[in-house]
Specification:
Blueprint: H1 9-21, H2 24-31, H3 35-49, E1 54-57, E2 60-63, H4 65-88, E3 95-101, H5 103-113, H6 115-120, E4 124-130, E5 144-149, E6 157-162, E7 165-169, E8 188-190, H7 195-203, E9 214-216, H8 220-228, E10 233-237, H9 242-247, E11 258-259, E12 263-268, H10 276-291
Parallel strand pairs: 3-4, 3-5, 8-9, 8-10
Antiparallel strand pairs: 1-2, 5-12, 6-12, 7-10, 7-11
Helix pairs in contact: 1-2, 1-3, 1-4, 2-3, 4-10, 5-8
Keywords: DNA-binding, Transcription, Transcription regulation
GO molecular function, one term: DNA-binding transcription factor activity
Organism: Microvirga mediterraneensis
Length: 297
C-alpha cells in the first residue's frame, strides 16, 4: 500500500485549533506556542493543499469554503485520536468529575444524555452543578464549566460548542388556529433582561404583531418551563428547546430565527490531561455537540 500523503501534524493542529476557536491567539494559547508559530503552520498547510483556508483581514479572519470543508472532518479526526488514547487507559477512568452548567442546559440536555457516558465509564462519579455563576469558572473544585458568553474567560481555556439561534416558542394550544395573529396579546417571557427578545423583534418584521407585556422569570430554565406550562411566548434556542420541540411540548410559531451574539462554550483550566476522568467527560461533551445529540429525540 502506498504511503498516505499527509501534511505535517503540527500544521493540521494549528489550523484546527484556530478555525475551531475562531482566533489565532486563542489557538496559540491552547497549543502553548506563539501567535506567529500558529500563523506559520497555517500557511504551511495552505501551501500543502494549494488553496487559502483563511480569508484574512488585519488581525481577523474567516474561513474560506475550503477551510469550512476541512474543519469538520479534521475536528472529528482529532476527536477519534483522543478517544483512542483514552480507551487505552480506560481502567483508570474513575473518580470524581464536577461539571458546572447553566440550569437550562443541565436539566433539558445534560441529564437526558449523560447516561451513555456513565455506562461507558461505570467507575466515574459525576457531580453536576446547575449554575450560571461566573465564580465557578475559576473555582478550584470545578473541573469543567459550560457557559453562555463570548468565549473570553481570562486564565481559562474555552472552546465553542455551538452557535446559538434564537426563536420564539410556545405551547401548541396557544396557536390552535395556526394564525400567528392569535398571539398578538400573548405575554413575552424573558429569562432575565429581555435583550434576546429585543434582538429578535428588531430583526424580524413579523414580530411587530406581538404587543403583549413581558414577564421576567429569572433564568432560562424557568422561562422555558413557563412556556411549556402555557404562560406565554418564550425566546427559545436550538440547544435547550430542541427536545421539547421534537416531542411536541413546544412549537415554533415563527420560522425566522436570529443568530445570538453569544454561544455556548466549554471552559477548563487546560490541565485536564493529567486526569483521565476529566479528559473523558470533556471529550464526551465535545463529541456530543459535534454530533448534535441535543437535537436527538
Amino acid at each position: 500500500m502506498a504511503a498516505r500523503r499527509l501534511p505535517p501534524l503540527n500544521a493540521l493542529r494549528a489550523f484546527e485549533a484556530a478555525a475551531r476557536r475562531r482566533s489565532i491567539s486563542r489557538a496559540a494559547e491552547e497549543l502553548g506556542v506563539t501567535h506567529g508559530a500558529v500563523s506559520h503552520q497555517i500557511r504551511t498547510l495552505e501551501a500543502f493543499v494549494g488553496t487559502d483556508l483563511l480569508e484574512r483581514a488585519g488581525n481577523r479572519f474567516k474561513l474560506t469554503l475550503a477551510g469550512e470543508q476541512l474543519l469538520a472532518p479534521l475536528s472529528s479526526g482529532f476527536d477519534l485520536l483522543a478517544a483512542a488514547v483514552i480507551s487505552l487507559d480506560r481502567p483508570s477512568v474513575r473518580g470524581d468529575v464536577t461539571v458546572s452548567a447553566p440550569p437550562a442546559l443541565t436539566c433539558l440536555w445534560l441529564v437526558k444524555t449523560v447516561g451513555d457516558l456513565l455506562k461507558q465509564y461505570p467507575d466515574l462519579r459525576l457531580h453536576l452543578r446547575p449554575s450560571n455563576s461566573p465564580k465557578e469558572v475559576i473555582a478550584s473544585d470545578v473541573d469543567l464549566c459550560i457557559r453562555y458568553g463570548d468565549g473570553i474567560w481570562p486564565g481559562r481555556r474555552s472552546e465553542q460548542l455551538t452557535d446559538t439561534d434564537l426563536f420564539p416558542v410556545c405551547r401548541p394550544d396557544l396557536l390552535a388556529s395556526g394564525d400567528i395573529r392569535e398571539l398578538a396579546d400573548t405575554p413575552l417571557l424573558c429569562a432575565a433582561n429581555g435583550h434576546e427578545w429585543d434582538l429578535w423583534l428588531a430583526t424580524v418584521p413579523q414580530g411587530s404583531i406581538l404587543t403583549g407585556g413581558r414577564h421576567y422569570l429569572g433564568n432560562h430554565l424557568a422561562m422555558i418551563e413557563a412556556a411549556a406550562g402555557g404562560l406565554g411566548l418564550a425566546m427559545g434556542d436550538n440547544v435547550t428547546c430542541q427536545r421539547y420541540l421534537e416531542s411536541g411540548v413546544l412549537v415554533r410559531p415563527f420560522a425566522e430565527s436570529v443568530r445570538a451574539p453569544a454561544s455556548f462554550f466549554l471552559i477548563d483550566a487546560g490541565d485536564h490531561e493529567r486526569r483521565p476522568a476529566v479528559t473523558a467527560v470533556r471529550q464526551w461533551i465535545l463529541e456530543s455537540f459535534h454530533r448534535k445529540t441535543f437535537l436527538a429525540a
